[in-house]
């Protein structure tokens, strides 16, 4: 074969082989999709500029989510069904994780109804489910910022003059990792057993 023809052909094959190897390497570096009830972010999204008020009127910032796992539910204390049901499930999950060898995560309710959910009411409400649970709320702007970053959706009615109103909100549980980043979202229906199993799967991959 003519050397002038052979040399470009070899170069072309080398380039194609390198391109194929690059594709394989990029694909092999992609994190494996975790099989959980919801979805885990391939790249957890850091929380930024969090400014909430805790159940003891203390400031809660992004720093308060670091160095521990946190399950967060966005709702409100006057919720007639979804919130108490989910907090009960979270309490059962907390018990299962405390009994196991897994890390015991922080559990938090973030109320998007600051007009009625004072820190004092939040403290009493979350303690009913578990004395170790935490409650938080904040200004409408700061709550919206938190909701946006945790993919929570809620809507307050325009007319709240009677003090008796319902708040529409999503029912997912958000998992924040020790780097204060949104790591996963657990979608309903939720059970304590499945949440504990999914959490174990997540922290094993995280390690």
What does this 3D model show about the protein?
The protein has one domain (38-157, 164-206): Glutaredoxin. The strands form two sheets. An eight-stranded mixed beta sheet has the order 1-10-9-4-5-6-2-3, sandwiched between helices. It has 207 residues and is of the alpha+beta class. The protein has helices at residues 3-28, 82-99, 119-129, 140-150, 192-206, and strands spanning 38-46, 51-54, 59-61, 70-75, 106-111, 134-137, 154-155, 168-169, 173-176, 181-186. Mean pLDDT is 86; it is low at 2-31. The chain is built from five helices and ten strands, in the order H-E-E-E-E-H-E-H-E-H-E-E-E-E-H. Strand 4, helix 2 (82-99) and strand 5 (106-111) form a beta-alpha-beta unit.
Brief description of this entry?
Strand 4 (70-75), helix 2 (82-99) and strand 5 (106-111) form a beta-alpha-beta unit. This protein has helices spanning 3-28, 82-99, 119-129, 140-150, 192-206; strands spanning 38-46, 51-54, 59-61, 70-75, 106-111, 134-137, 154-155, 168-169, 173-176, 181-186. 39% of the residues lie in helices and 22% in strands.
Keywords summarizing the entry:
207 residues, alpha+beta, eight-stranded mixed beta sheet, two-stranded antiparallel sheet, 22% strand, globular, disordered N terminus
- Over all CA atoms, what is the radius of gyration? 23 Å
**CATH architecture level-2 label:** 3-Layer(aba) Sandwich
Count every beta strand, where a strand is a DSSP E run of 2 or more residues: 10
- Average pLDDT confidence is 86
SS content category: alpha+beta
Question: Which parts are unreliable, with pLDDT below 50 for 5 consecutive residues or more?
Answer: 2-31
- Helix/strand order: HEEEEHEHEHEEEEH
The biggest beta sheet reads: 8 strands, mixed
User: What percentage of amino acids are in beta strands?
Assistant: 15-25%
**Count of alpha and pi helical runs:** 5
Strand order of the largest sheet: 1-10-9-4-5-6-2-3
Helix content: 25-40%
Q: Work out the count of structural domains.
A: 1
Q: What's the level 1 CATH class?
A: Alpha Beta
For CATH, the homologous superfamily is named as: Glutaredoxin
Principal-axes geometry comes out as globular
CATH topology: Glutaredoxin
Distance between the termini: 56 Å
């Amino acid at each position: 074969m003519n050397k002038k023809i052979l040399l470009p052909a070899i170069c072309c094959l080398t380039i194609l082989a390198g391109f194929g190897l690059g594709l394989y390497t990029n694909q092999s570096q992609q994190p494996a999709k975790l099989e959980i009830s919801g979805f885990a972010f391939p790249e957890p999204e850091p929380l930024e500029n969090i400014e909430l008020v805790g159940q003891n009127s203390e400031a809660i910032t992004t720093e308060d989510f670091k160095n521990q796992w946190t399950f967060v539910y966005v709702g409100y204390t006057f919720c007639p069904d979804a919130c108490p049901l989910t907090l009960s499930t979270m309490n059962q999950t907390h018990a299962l994780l405390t009994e196991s060898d897994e890390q015991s995560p922080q559990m938090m309710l973030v109320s998007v109804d600051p007009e009625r959910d004072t820190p004092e009411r939040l403290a009493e409400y979350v303690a009913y489910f578990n004395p170790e649970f935490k409650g938080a709320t904040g200004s409408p702007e700061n709550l919206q910022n938190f909701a946006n970053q945790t993919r929570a959706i809620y809507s307050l009615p325009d007319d709240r003059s009677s003090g008796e109103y319902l708040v529409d909100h999503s029912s997912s549980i958000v998992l924040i990792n020790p780097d204060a980043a949104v790591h996963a979202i657990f979608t309903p229906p939720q059970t304590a057993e499945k949440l504990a199993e999914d959490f174990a799967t997540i922290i094993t991959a995280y390690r």
